[in-house]
Recover the amino acids of this structure.
């Protein structure tokens, strides 16, 4: 099983926007740091001088001898600093009063030397102009010789290490701003994206409502992002083509069914005039199936177009007509017919033509698949159901749901196309009821059409 979740456009946008903003802030801060460091190093800021350079070089050069005396070790950094600053000077004093001096202390800061014992930290500035460099600095420093106080001139050139060290505060600010921006973007962007894609959500909801049986449905382009609009238009164009194809298909089936009714009726009449015998029975059954098929096609179109009218329907009278119409066909196929109503009249609200078609399909189904022997029973119950039972092999329990699906057949024997029971179920759903199949008293198939009890059925006797 994959642990990767489906890719969400919303979260992709959120992550991309958040990443872009973080990257932008990083670029801005790095650019600022690099620019300031470049200008400082090459003398455009503070003349390239850092007042910490000399104290740091001197700190690293201070040593203490075996006799406890301080001395200056000629480190490479100190040698380089001496070559860069000809008038280099500094003064070192430890806690015991030992002193080390190099160079000539400027007269401007000479007065501070006598007060060095009471100075802890100081930047000695001659004037108070903006960005003015100090003449000297005083700092306590930790060295290998112990803690010492260093007074020196602020003349050393800034180093790359010092530039990097001075950027620590900038990096801290950058990290805080990036964290705040990332959190704010991560929290706010989903709402912004959701609002921006609101039109797309509406189009998705409209797509769920598309019904193949209802033409003319189109997706609204209102509020859809411009980038998604071509896709919505393409879907609408596809729906238009489907509507045209479905309308043409439906018109063809309706016209074909109408055109076939007359030839089939003529054929049935001529077959009825043939001498009695097994061949005549078979031919009449085939003609009846053709008649039923054309009727089913017309009924399907009528139901899809909702051309039905609900009235009070007498189930007893309707079932009696169907039994009388199909009895000759059943007798010729080797069956007995039994009609068992529970009253003289049982009324329900429905479309009489549709109910008659459903019952006719069930009786013809029993004739075709009942084993050509036994009794076909038609029952009408005061509880609001019709039932057609045969004494054939029945329907396997595993197939009792699928047989009501379109084009599903238990036996592929060339009889029918699997529309009859699908039409029956559609008719019953139209009436708020349902069709079901069970095992009959004689182990055959028993199909029941159950109508809703509201409005209540009324048995009259």
């Amino acid at each position: 099983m994959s642990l990767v979740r489906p890719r969400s456009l919303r979260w992709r946008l959120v992550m991309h926007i958040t990443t872009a903003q973080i990257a932008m802030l990083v670029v801005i801060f790095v650019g600022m740091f690099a620019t300031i460091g470049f200008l400082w190093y090459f003398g455009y800021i503070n003349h390239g001088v850092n007042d910490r350079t000399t104290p740091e070089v001197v700190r690293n050069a201070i040593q203490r001898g075996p006799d406890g005396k301080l001395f200056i070790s000629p480190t490479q950094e100190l040698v380089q600093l001496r070559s860069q600053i000809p008038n280099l000077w500094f003064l070192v004093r430890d806690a015991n009063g030992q002193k080390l001096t190099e160079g000539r202390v400027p007269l401007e800061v000479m007065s501070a030397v006598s007060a060095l014992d009471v100075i802890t930290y100081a930047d000695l500035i001659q004037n108070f102009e903006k960005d003015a460099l100090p003449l000297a600095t005083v700092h306590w420093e930790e060295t290998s010789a112990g803690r010492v106080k260093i007074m020196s001139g602020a003349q050393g050139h800034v180093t790359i290490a010092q530039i990097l060290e001075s950027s620590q505060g900038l990096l801290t600010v950058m990290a805080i701003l990036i964290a705040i921006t990332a959190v704010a973007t991560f929290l706010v962007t989903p709402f912004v994206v959701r609002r921006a894609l609101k039109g797309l959500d509406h189009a998705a909801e409209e797509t769920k409502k598309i019904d193949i049986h209802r033409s003319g449905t189109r997706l609204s382009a209102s509020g859809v992002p411009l980038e998604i609009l071509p896709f919505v238009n393409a879907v609408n164009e596809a729906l238009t083509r489907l509507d045209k194809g479905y309308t043409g298909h439906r018109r063809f089936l309706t016209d074909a069914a109408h055109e076939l009714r007359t030839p089939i009726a003529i054929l049935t009449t001529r077959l009825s005039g043939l001498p009695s015998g097994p061949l005549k029975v078979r031919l009449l059954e085939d003609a009846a199936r053709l008649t039923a098929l054309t009727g089913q096609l017309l009924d399907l179109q009528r139901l899809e177009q909702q051309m039905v009218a609900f009235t009070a329907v007498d189930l007893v009278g309707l079932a009696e007509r169907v039994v009388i119409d199909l009895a000759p066909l059943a007798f010729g196929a080797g069956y007995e017919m039994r009609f068992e109503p529970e009253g003289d009249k049982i009324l329900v609200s429905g479309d009489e033509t549709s109910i008659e078609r459903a019952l006719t399909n069930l009786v013809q189904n029993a004739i075709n698949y009942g084993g050509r022997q036994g009794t076909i029973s038609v029952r009408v119950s005061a509880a609001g159901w019709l039932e057609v039972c045969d004494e054939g092999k029945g329907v396997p329990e595993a197939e009792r749901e699928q047989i009501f699906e379109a084009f599903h057949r238990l036996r592929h024997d060339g009889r029918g196309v699997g529309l009859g029971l699908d039409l029956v179920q559609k008719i019953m759903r139209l009436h708020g009821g349902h069709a079901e199949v069970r095992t009959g008293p004689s182990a055959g198939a028993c199909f029941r059409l159950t109508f809703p009890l509201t409005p209540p059925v009324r048995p009259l006797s």
Remarks:
- Confidence is low (pLDDT under 50) at residues 456-461.
- The CA atoms of residues 17 and 185 lie 8 Å apart.
- Residues 51-156 form one domain.
- The chain is about 50% helix and 15% strand.
